[in-house]
Amino acid sequence: MRSGEDEGTSGSAPAPDEVAHRRALQEEEYRLPHHWILRKHGLHNYLHKSDVMADLVRASGLTGGAALDVGCGDGRGTHELALRLGAGYRWTGVDFSGRAIAFARLMAPDLSFEVQDGEALAAADASYDLVVAREVIEHVPPPDVAAFVAELRRVLRPDGRLLVTTPTTNRRLPDKHFQHFTEGSLRTALEGGGGFRVDVVQGLGWFPSDRRVERAYRYAIAMPALWRLDAWCGTRALPARRADDLLALARAV
Q: Which letter does DSSP use for residue 251 in this model?
C-alpha cells in the first residue's frame, strides 16, 4: 500500500532485499545533514514538534536521567530535545547509518552518538529513564514491530518513559516507510506486548490542515518568496483522526 493506509503490525516478513532497499533510501538522505539545513516551513514544523515532544515529557513528571534517542539520524532531533529538556538529562543517540552518526557528532559534539541498530541495542537492560523514537517505527517491517517495541522496553528502567512519533495514515506512504499508523494501531503496537501503558496520544497537523496546501508547497519550492509567508508555515494540535503526525507518550509497566 502506498497511499498511507494502515497496514497493521503483522503479516509476512518482507524480503531481505526489500528491507535493504528501504534502508538505502534512508541512507541516501544523509548525503547531507538535511535536518540541520531545513528551509522555512520544514524548520518551523520540526522545531514546533520538538516543543510538543518536550512538553509531553515534562507533563509525564520525568525530570531527568539517562535518555536514548533511537534512530537519531543526523542528531538534530536529539540536540533540540536536549536544549528543551535541560541539563538534567544525559543523551545518547543511535542510528544504523554511520554517515548520519558522523554528521551528528560533527553538528552536536556535546552529545554522545553511536552506530547501532535500533532493533538490537547495545545497552544493558534497564539503562535509560527516557527512550525517544522520532519517526522510526514506520521504518520497521510490520512483523518486527513487536520485537522492536520489546527492545525499547528492555533498555528502559521500571516506570521509564517512551516517546514515539510517527506519520498517520492521512499522509502518503513513501517508499522508505513500511506503514503509517492510526491512534488505534499505534496504541496496539505499544501496548500489545504488555510492556507499556500509553498515557497520551497527541495529534499534530500542518497549518492550514487543508490538503491543497500540502500540494501548494511543491510550487513554493520554485517560488522562494512563498517561504516568507508565515501563513504557509506551521503546525497545530489536531484530533488524532485528522492529524498528519502522532506523538505518543507511554510508561514502562
A: E
3-state secondary structure of 133: strand
> All 3 cell numbers of residue 74?
543526523
Where are any strands of DSSP class E within the chain?
A: 65-70, 89-95, 112-115, 128-134, 156-167, 196-206, 235-238, 245-252
pLDDT tens string, the chain, 253 residues long: the values are 444 555 445 556 788 788 899 999 989 989 999 999 988 778 888 999 999 999 999 999 999 999 999 999 999 999 999 999 999 999 999 999 999 999 999 999 999 999 999 999 999 999 999 999 999 999 999 999 999 999 999 999 999 999 999 999 999 999 999 999 999 999 999 999 999 999 999 999 876 544 455 555 545 544 444 444 444 445 678 889 899 999 999 999 9
The domains of the chain, with CATH numbers, are 16-38+63-201+246-252 (3.40.50.150)
Stated pTM of the model: 0.85
